[in-house]
Amino acid sequence: MKCFSRYLPYIFRPPNTILSCSCHTEADIISTVEFNHTGELLATGDKGGRVVIFQREQESKNQPHRRGEYNVYSTFQSHEPEFDYLKSLEIEEKINKIRWLPQQNAAYFLLSTNDKTVKLWKVSERDKRPEGYNLKDEDGRLRDPSMITMLRVPVLRPMDLMVEATPRRVFANAHTYHINSISVNSDYETYMSADDLRINLWNFEITNQSFNIVDIKPANMEELTEVITAAEFHPHHCNTFVYSSSKGTIRLCDMRASALCDRHSKFFEEPEDPSNRSFFSEIISSISDVKFSHSGRYIMTRDYLTVKVWDLNMENRPIETYQVHDYLRSKLCSLYENDCIFDKFECVWNGSDSVIMTGSYNNFFRMFDRNTKRDVTLEASRENSKPRAILKPRKVCVGGKRRKDEISVDSLDFSKKILHTAWHPSENIIAVAATNNLYIFQDKVN
């Protein structure tokens, strides 16, 4: 596995705040990270309802290494806090997920969602402005009709580049429970949104109607045994999607079979090892993320302790299982008491599906090479490395003598956690969200 070097840390926080991790507010915590289809743009959402888009620097002959740098391109408020008066519920502005649409013209489009409402945003550039209106002056005020003596043809004048974000569609009032996933279909005409008990299918052109394609809500809520935790469309087949559950199962559904996909086409579940059975088994087996590989052949799932890779043609067990932080198995009781056991970690593929990445505690994140079976633990931290310094692999010591370069499992900081990561679609560039900081790493540049 190639070594990743620190390229530049991009600190994601509002202006006029002190550059100290201890001074961030709850609203600054990054809640989602997503590259667009070309990798030229990277979007982050935070708990304050804001979306920040970073754009990759163009290559210059004088400084070819600057090709990998990302700078702020646009910042806008996507969601505001709301209040449901009928249910006396506060609706947080936190951005749960961002998904890009493929670029069709000069503008960019992305979906963002909080717990209840999905919005389609258009992000466009403007470097010219019209001047010479007939009925308005240059300040926009209406002119006196008696003063208009001749017809003018408006002209476009150059202006400073301005990036505008405008909401083009608002998809609301379709979810009773909190939205945990959105996924754009490969037909680029539809997308789905999933909450704890239902999955809805939307057309991008229709905001007042959606189609319920999965409904697992029982007639009596006391009989509820599982909830939907994540869902995603197949990257190539517009009729196929998967969703995962809190019971550690994955269901593959085909929309051609019936309008309501309550009956799955395939059911992926690994039999439980009785020797590992404990009070926490059900909690740690809950799947927090599910992702199709770029090829569409595999699906990857993340539960609390492991990442698993499943072949679509084999339902009874995963073909690969990677231990993310097995040293925490003895700490489950304290992790339950401080609620960390309910943390929802994401996982991502690299562009060729050969390496997978997921987060852990102490600002650690893990990479697993599927070909060589090697793995590495790296740390996203401003304290331990300077820009352009090579990241050193970290090791966690479980017991016995601790080496100089190792960290004891008892010294791990569980308040520092890498829940959200993203991988450039074609290059070895990764984005890692550590609380309110966004780190971007890339392969070592010679």
The CATH topology comes to Methylamine Dehydrogenase, Chain H
Going across the major beta sheet, what is the strand order?
1-32-31-30
**CATH class call:** Mainly Beta
Query: The biggest beta sheet, please?
Result: 4 strands, antiparallel
In angstroms, what is the radius of gyration?
A: 24 Å
List the uncertain runs: 1-23
Q: Tally the helices: what do you get?
A: 2
Which helices and strands, and how do they pair?
Blueprint: E1 4-11, E2 30-35, E3 41-46, E4 50-56, E5 70-77, E6 82-84, E7 89-91, E8 97-100, E9 108-113, E10 118-131, E11 155-171, E12 181-184, E13 190-194, E14 198-203, E15 211-215, E16 228-233, E17 240-245, E18 250-254, E19 266-268, H1 281-284, E20 289-292, E21 298-302, E22 306-311, E23 320-323, H2 332-337, E24 347-349, E25 355-359, E26 364-369, E27 375-379, E28 395-397, E29 406-408, E30 420-423, E31 429-434, E32 437-443
Parallel strand pairs: 28-29
Antiparallel strand pairs: 1-32, 2-3, 3-4, 4-5, 6-7, 8-9, 9-10, 10-11, 12-13, 13-14, 14-15, 16-17, 17-18, 18-19, 20-21, 21-22, 22-23, 24-25, 25-26, 26-27, 30-31, 31-32
Keywords: Repeat, WD repeat
Family: Belongs to the phosphatase 2A regulatory subunit B family.
Protein name: Serine/threonine-protein phosphatase 2A 55 kDa regulatory subunit B
